[in-house]
Fold this sequence. Notes:
The complex is a heterodimer of chains A (66) and B (275).
Chain A: E1 2-5, E2 8-11, H1 18-24, E3 33-36, E4 39-41, E5 56-64
Parallel strand pairs in A: 1-5
Antiparallel strand pairs in A: 1-2, 3-4, 3-5
Chain B: E1 11-13, E2 16-18, E3 22-25, H1 32-41, E4 46-53, E5 74-77, H2 85-102, E6 109-112, H3 125-137, E7 141-146, H4 150-158, E8 163-166, H5 180-191, E9 200-202, H6 208-217, E10 221-224, H7 226-229, H8 234-254
Parallel strand pairs in B: 3-4, 3-10, 4-5, 6-7, 7-8, 9-10
Antiparallel strand pairs in B: 1-2
Helix pairs in contact in B: 1-8, 2-3, 4-5, 6-8
Amino acid sequence: MTIVVNGEPRQMAEGTTVAQLIAALKLDDRALAVEVNLQLVPRAKHVEYHLADGDRLEVVTLAGGG
Amino acid sequence: MASDPAVADPLRIGSHTFSSRLIVGTGKYAHYQLMAQCLEAAGAECITVAVRRERLVDAQGKSLLDFIDTGRYTILPNTAGCFSAEDAIRVARLGREILSQLGNPGADWVKLEVLGDSRTLLPDPLATLQATEKLVAEGFQVLVYTSDDPVMARRLKAAGAASVMPAGSPIGSGQGVLNPNAIRICLEYLKDGDADYPVIVDAGVGTASDVTAAMELGVDGVLLNTGIAHAKDPLRMARAMRMACESGRDACLAGRIPKRLYATASSPREGTITG
Lengths: 66, 275
């Protein structure tokens, strides 16, 4: 299936969970939030949330700002 | 009336209390190490951050969080760069999610910024008001960036904002407080019957005297970033900003003398040798 992560298309196995995606991206998960199709997916749901073809994700963290 | 200047005079915003009245941004520094030193030198206890996409390539680089002691600073996440109420609300929720994970007390608040124009970075007043209402309903303590329009300031407070934060001048412009009278009227309106309501000047500060001038008007604090980060010597400017903020607060509480057209001698007239 194809999902879009931070604007970039990406091929993933059917039924990949948010938690599996974060692990595959090798991201530092200390400070990270995930939105799927404009809806926040809380961290506690990452393990059970199965992604579907066409899902659009935002994976964000903190950056310097004013 | 004399008062002891050593007595604590904390800044209270919603459920948060700070001894420092300077809120300092973490953006635009040459490197994170310098940022960390400047936050310390500015005496900041509350710092602002942005919420941005993870870099999926080169994700192993240094992160902002490697340089911030999240047990020491209360982090105020912003919605900078949002041009609609919907986007600002999404970013506020994402910021809350991240700060909750970090166990930072900043998880319950947001610096709301809904822009209406990319050249001036002026706020979109209608979208700002809509986003304030929605975020307040979701339980956020909303610190809202706005222009220095007193009527808008009053509307935002009525919508439940924990603090109204008028800009002194455009973001990053370094022009200081361009219209002190507008800030004075904002203060009168917002503090009418509610003297402790916190009003913060957010944006436009270029140098230490701008901070002092803002504080002397009676605002409760100043939020700044570029004024330190882009100074020739940011660390020295951070120190200057800290002292400027303290000086302005003290001068405000002390009460300045009225301005007069003519001189009044400081030395006694009696006893001069000229008889």
